[in-house]
Amino acid sequence: MFMSSQSPTDLPRIIVRLVRGLPATDGAGVRLNRVIGTESMPQVDPFLMLDEIRSEDPKAYIAGFPAHPHRGFETITYVLAGRLRHSDSKGHHGSIGPGEVQWMTAARGIVHSEIPEQNGGLMQGFQLWLNLPASEKMLEAKYRDIAAVDIPAVIFGTTEVKLLAGQYHGLKGPINSPTTQPFIADVKLGSDGEITLPISEEHQGFIYVFEGGVAVDRTLVNRGQAGVIGAGNTLTLTAGEDGARALVVTGKPLNEPVARHGPFVMNTQQEIKQAFDDYQNGLFI
């Protein structure tokens, strides 16, 4: 068991709302679990959506996500099992496999596709949408593939923290969005494991449990559930005897109006209309 030392000024965060993901279909028929981005939980500012794909049935994922546009936000795709091939209208292409990430800043506009490279077996992973502030929505689009070896990890016995974004124990994750300052960690806890993570008081966020169950204070978050966290500056996760694994996702809220329609996220409906016009006029290149 590991727990960071706490000081008298620590303010432990609690779970203020539990959310269970809902079955959804996206792309060309990919079946997934939509956790954030539903009618009951449209966002946790600055995060707009979290989808989980987990299936051994190729019919549930094989068609993938053919070419489609985005504007106004960032996508973070994290693969746990299987492989995804991707390409976009900027001429980028590649693939990501277990433990790897594609971080794409759609900004002013990009058209991309994500297609599984396998015909069977387990496909598992997540896609997180991170909003951009109004001042950055019309910057140039960019992307980065991040290899598993470039994601730092902190290990305490049977507890492991993979740091996709943010800082922890002197390490820094490879994803860095300066305005929202995300902290994104894949936390694996062994039997009865416990860990306390420092979380900026400015941040909002949630945990999503995808193996086992995690207790935060007196609230149990089970597999397939997200727990929205309240105010404070520390987050303590405690696993049961079977261990657990969870994403911890926090960021600095933008507190800006959100107008969204399908693949576009802007600040006003007029900007959404402009996004559709620009896409139809071939300007997403």
Secondary-structure blueprint:
Blueprint: E1 15-20, E2 22-26, E3 30-36, E4 47-55, E5 65-70, E6 73-81, E7 84-88, E8 93-96, E9 101-105, E10 110-116, E11 123-131, E12 142-146, E13 153-156, E14 159-165, E15 167-168, E16 171-172, E17 183-189, E18 194-198, E19 204-216, E20 219-222, E21 225-229, E22 234-251, E23 259-261, E24 264-266, H1 269-280
Antiparallel strand pairs: 1-21, 2-3, 3-4, 4-11, 5-10, 6-9, 6-11, 7-8, 7-10, 9-12, 13-14, 14-17, 15-16, 17-22, 18-22, 19-20, 19-21, 19-22, 23-24
Please name the defining characteristics of this protein.
7-stranded antiparallel sheet, 24 strands, mainly beta, 9-stranded antiparallel sheet, 285 residues, 1 helix, disordered N terminus
Descriptive report:
With 285 residues, this protein is mainly beta. The chain has one helix and 24 strands. It has one helix spanning 269-280, and strands at 15-20, 22-26, 30-36, 47-55, 65-70, 73-81, 84-88, 93-96, 101-105, 110-116, 123-131, 142-146, 153-156, 159-165, 167-168, 171-172, 183-189, 194-198, 204-216, 219-222, 225-229, 234-251, 259-261, 264-266. The strands form five sheets. Strands 1, 13, 14, 17, 18, 19, 20, 21 and 22 form a nine-stranded antiparallel beta sheet that branches. Strands 2-3-4-11-6-9-12 form a seven-stranded antiparallel beta sheet, with no helix packed on it. A hairpin with a 4-residue loop joins strand 7 and strand 8. The termini are far apart. The model is unreliable at 1-5 (pLDDT under 50).
